[in-house]
Write a structure and sequence with these properties.
Elements: H1 9-13, E1 17-26, E2 36-46, E3 52-61, H2 72-78, H3 92-109, E4 114-119, H4 122-135, E5 143-150, H5 151-159, H6 164-171, H7 183-203
Parallel strand pairs: 1-4, 4-5
Antiparallel strand pairs: 1-2, 2-3
Helix pairs in contact: 5-6, 5-7, 6-7
């Protein structure tokens, strides 16, 4: 395995993984058969002092792929009209080409090895990303094939809440319910939540971890 050169602080923080925050809105729960309707992506950066922050945002409304299923229950939940021409929707192929290009640039810029999805209930978003990538026959997928950072789990640990809106409020972030279930808004809130959890852990002394024993430490 080739060694990664010029590792950034961001790369060192997550074992060379490049965290990318994602939210998708869909026409159902099955990533193989149900349409992907919207996707938003936020990349992150870490400053010279080790604080994580939002960097770039990209967002697409997506055309349902040919033969996809569209569940009425899903549309009543996310309030999306897949066939509204004012959406400005693009094909999955175009959306993923733009998104993956930005991600690969970030991986190279920060000396990372692979991207890793950060999402709220991340298995759902990860499954749709992977299925869409396979469907449109993308040769190089930047994301880890199975690992994710799930903010539902992390916020359950950090503040005792697993619902995105409740977790944001519990940690001191605002949350506008009227904007919820918009991919871009949910991604931004998830990114802010993830950054706050990571930065709060740093404030508590959790990273970098100092494994050196103090000479005054006594064995128990």
């Amino acid at each position: 395995m080739n060694k990664i050169k010029n590792k950034s602080l961001l790369s060192k923080r997550f074992r060379t993984f490049y965290p990318v925050v994602i939210d998708v809105e869909t026409a159902g729960f099955n990533p193989i058969t149900d349409a992907l309707l919207e996707i938003a992506v936020i990349t992150l950066n870490m400053n010279d002092y080790g604080w994580l922050k939002v960097e770039k945002k990209i967002h697409f409304h997506v055309k349902p792929f040919q033969g996809s299923l569209i569940k009425k229950e899903a549309l009543s939940f996310n309030k999306i009209d897949p066939f509204n021409p004012l959406r400005g929707a693009v094909s999955e192929k175009l959306a993923f080409k733009e998104i993956f290009s930005i991600i690969y640039n970030g991986i190279k810029k920060y000396g990372c090895s692979k991207a890793i999805i950060v999402a709220h209930n991340a298995n759902f978003d990860h499954s749709f990303i992977m299925s869409a990538s396979e469907r449109i026959k993308i040769k190089k997928n930047p994301f880890h094939p199975f690992a994710t950072f799930d903010t539902a789990t992390l916020s359950g640990l950090a503040v005792g809440q697993t619902v995105l809106s409740k977790a944001c409020r519990a940690i001191g972030l605002s949350f506008d319910n009227s904007q919820a279930h918009s991919a871009l808004y949910d991604t931004l809130q998830t990114a802010n939540l993830f950054c706050e959890i990571i930065n709060r852990w740093k404030k508590l002394g959790g990273w970098p971890i100092n494994n050196k024993k103090n000479k005054n430490d006594k064995k128990i």
